[in-house]
Each structure stands twice: as structure tokens, then as C-alpha cells.
Amino acid sequence: MVHNWFGYVPKVNYQLEKIVEYDESVYQIALEILEGGHLDHGFKAYTTAFKLTQVSEAETLTDIKVLYETQPGHNHIPGETIKATFLYINCLENYLLKGLL
Q: Hey, CA dihedral for 40, 46, 47, 50, is it positive or negative?
């Protein structure tokens, strides 16, 4: 399923991230935003974790976990923030599929 998230993702000009978890044996990585990105949109902390699991020769399951903390008094819909992550995964998938064709 392909989604067009471009109209729904807040514009981000800059984002500095740090790898806070990396486990190559289980194909897992977590990235914490240090500056910019979601921190410019009302969050105090924002971390996204990815775990990849092979389903078949041509399929990989991507588990995504988002941990966040909002600024005091900021009402934010957490489900909206994950759209940027889906956009990234979708773009990566399209890039990889084009390379395999």
C-alpha cells in the first residue's frame, strides 16, 4: 500500500539526530532528535525506533515505536507525528524497489 503523506507532514527544515540504540543482531535501531524537527513543533523529546524482521525472501516487516514528551500546555495529536516516519519508510521502499527492477 502506497500513501502520499506529503500534504500531511509538517515542514521540517533541519533535524539533528543521535543513534541511541543499535543492535545489528536483531536489526534494530533507535534515533533521538536532539535539535529541530519535532522539537520545533511542541515536543520536549522525540525518539523513533525501528526493528526489521524478514517475513520472506521479498518481504520485511518494519516495527516502529515512537517515544515522545510534549512541552507543557501543548496539545498535540501523537498519531500525526508518525506520518513523517511513514513517509521516510515509503521513500526508502520505493528507492529500493526501483534498484531491484
A: negative
Strand order in the sheet with 59-70: 15-23, 28-36, 43-56, 59-70
SS3 11: coil
Task: Read off the pTM.
Answer: 0.73
pLDDT digit string, tens, across residues 48-90: 999 999 999 888 899 999 898 888 877 766 666 777 788 878 8
Residue showing cell 534515533: 31
DSSP string, 49-86: EEEEEEEETTEEEEEEEEEEEEPTT----HHHHTHHHH
Domains and CATH numbers, the chain: 15-100 (3.30.530.20)
